[in-house]
Amino acid sequence: MVYMPACGDLLCKDCFKAHFSIAIREKSVKHFNCPICGLPDLGNNDQMLEMNLQLLVAMVKVHLDSTDYDLCQKKLADFNLSKEPGFVRCTHEGCGAGFINDFRDRKKVECPECKRLMCFLCKKKVLLIIIQ
Length: 132
Fold this sequence. Notes:
Keywords: Metal-binding, Ubl conjugation pathway, Zinc, Zinc-finger. Pfam families: IBR (PF01485). There is one protein chain. Helix content is 37%, strand content 12%. With 132 residues, the chain is α+β, with helices and mostly antiparallel strands. Helix 2 (46-63) runs antiparallel to helix 3. It is elongated. The relative contact order is 0.11.
């Protein structure tokens, strides 16, 4: 059995794995909640969210595979990064990487993951047309 620290509910290992492997792949870290009661309901309390996520990451490391653990770590890092000024999430299909735009005076930014351009102000994709 897996003990959920936010609420005290107990889940069998298979239910924990099934619920959190889907949550990690499909949801924001703010929605990594107990499947029985939905706790914790953290709202905008980033400090409580951070504490809950640290516990959950440790549990994921023990009970899920390394792919899910790595993705959980990445989502947690992205969440922390998203609180920084100048944070941008790539809007290009299939990417979605998060990064800090260190050059906020530039309107066009290049995603460090997919290397495609987007507008920092409106977040629209920038298409380059090459005329020969």
